[in-house]
Automatic annotation (TrEMBL):
InterPro entries: Integrase_cat-core, RNaseH-like_sf, RNaseH_sf. One of its GO terms (molecular function) is nucleic acid binding. The lineage of its organism: Bacteria, Bacillati, Bacillota, Bacilli, Lactobacillales. This is Integrase core domain protein. PROSITE patterns: INTEGRASE. One of its GO terms (biological process) is DNA integration. Residues 113-292 form the Integrase catalytic domain. Signal peptide: none annotated. It comes from the Bacteria. It holds the Pfam family rve.
Amino acid sequence: MKDAAETMKILSAYDLTKSLRGAAELAGCSHHTVARLVRARDAGQTPGSGASRPKVTDVWLPKIEEWVEASTGRIRADVVHAKLTAMGYTGSERSTRRAVAEVKAAWRAGKRRVHRPWITEPGAWLQYDFGDGPAIDGAKTVLFVAWLAWSRYRIVIALRDRTAPSVFAALDRCFRLIGGAPTYVLTDNEKTVTVSHVAGVPVRNQATVAFARHYGVEVLTCQPADPAAKGGVENAVKLAKADLVPKDTNLRDQYASFAELEAACAGFMAMVNSREHRVTRRRPDHMLAEETSALHRIP
């Protein structure tokens, strides 16, 4: 690639001669080089800058930035490479080292991105949310929907209410269904999790704190208007409600008992977890078999 001085010399020669070959003779380069620089200038591009080629590390940069920031710039490149490889990265360690060096340089210069797409890690995140379930004998029900973020494995449990004991029982069942506990449990600012905010800092429900300590998880709440983190479980809630709640669009019969609703939830889980996910192009139940090894043991 020509430097700035050579580029200007070549373009000046072309402006003088109006000939590709004439400019090439004056500048001492190939007429193909002259043509490329002239085309770039005429297209409004920076001559000689060249087109940037995609790198194998590009899609992983948000995760590298997250780790560099969390470690205050101390994480080693070989550690990053091992963690990325476990998540499906196929690039070389040399590419990883180059990317980590660039991210660390940007971090030290204070050039951190405001928004980063969420790249999940195996065994790290389980999200849960709620949807209105069908009425049975005049009583409302609740659909507890959980989503294991890396494998996209979805769990739907029918509840009679959203009280803390019901939620804790549903989470316990989730952990046992997936074969372990994740590092983080993420949800909205439910009163079962956050009782208030003081100076913008969430005050956790003490029952939730005790539950989290017992299972060795950290319960976190979503930031407002954060589709990157909340979108997965919210879509799972919409899908569950569309299939399980009787309406004209699915022609499902009304449930005669709570046990029927529980059986329908089990059938829904078997269906959605055994079909290929449109993002990963893999079945969630197959990915769960890999993710289970990254989960923590439950008491």
